[in-house]
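Hey,
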Amino acid sequence: MDKKPSSAKSTPMKRSSEEYSQIARSSNFQALLRAKKRFIIPFTICFFCFYFALPILTSYTTILNQSFYGSITWAWVFAFLQFVMTWSFCMIYYKKAQQFDQLSDHILKEKARDAL
């Protein structure tokens, strides 16, 4: 019975630790890890800086107490923008994850081709 390679769209196969080690050492897998790090680390840093800026700015400064429009202060605008940022990051990651899945599929197909 032929085993077909697993992908993001199928049920994963059970792999031995030796097979995983071989995949982890491959240049394509290392490229996938580098691509994910290049994407995830800057977005995480940006998220945490933006997220922690609100409590820091409201606790230690009065800069966000200025009126934006009527009785709405910049603190409310900043808080709303955190929701916008979170949804934006989710949509961006959703699109980028599709590219990561394609790279993963390519790695698994290469492994299956090498096993033949």
